[in-house]
Amino acid sequence: EQTRKEKTEAVETLHAEIDELQASIAKLTEEIGELSKAIADLDAAMAEATGIRQKEKEENEVTIKDSQEAQTAVAQALTVLKEFYAKAGEATALLQKKQMPEIFDSPYKGMQAENGGVIGMLEVIESDFARLEADTSAAEAS
């Protein structure tokens, strides 16, 4: 009878352990499900962030290219204007001397004295494009 009692207690202890382990398995299974969902959410967020970053990178590359082209165009415009003003100054100085209106008493300089004029404005625009290119390149590098 004592052997039967010991065996019954052992069976009860084993059943209690089985119940505990089954509860632990259920809890761990639930945690695995939650963690798998969290991993899937993180993967989706990372894919979205990667897509957004790729789009930004493409936009930055276009901005850099446009800035470089704009700098070239502005530099060419500045060269043309400077040559124009130099030639215009010579042309008005070479007018025939007879009946010269008083407007031609000095070489033509354009309207450069007024608030920096066109050349001053183009130089500012050129520096703005250079700064935009530098800032965008620096942001892209970091």
Task: Name some characteristics of this structure.
2 helices, mainly alpha, single chain, 142 residues, 82% helix
Walk me through the structure.
The chain is an all-alpha fold and 142 residues long. The chain has two helices and no strands. The longest helix has 92 residues. The protein is rod-shaped and about 135 Å long. The two termini are 80 Å apart. 2% of the residues are buried. The mean pLDDT is 85.
Q: SSE layout and pairings?
A:
Layout: H1 2-93, H2 117-141
The succession of helices and strands, N to C, reads HH
Helical content stands at over 70%
Number of helices: 2
Main sheet specs:
none
Our measurement of the CA-to-CA distance between the termini, rounded to an integer number of angstroms, reads 80 Å
Total E-strand runs: 0
Give a short overview.
This protein is mainly alpha-helical and 142 residues long. It has two helices and no strands.
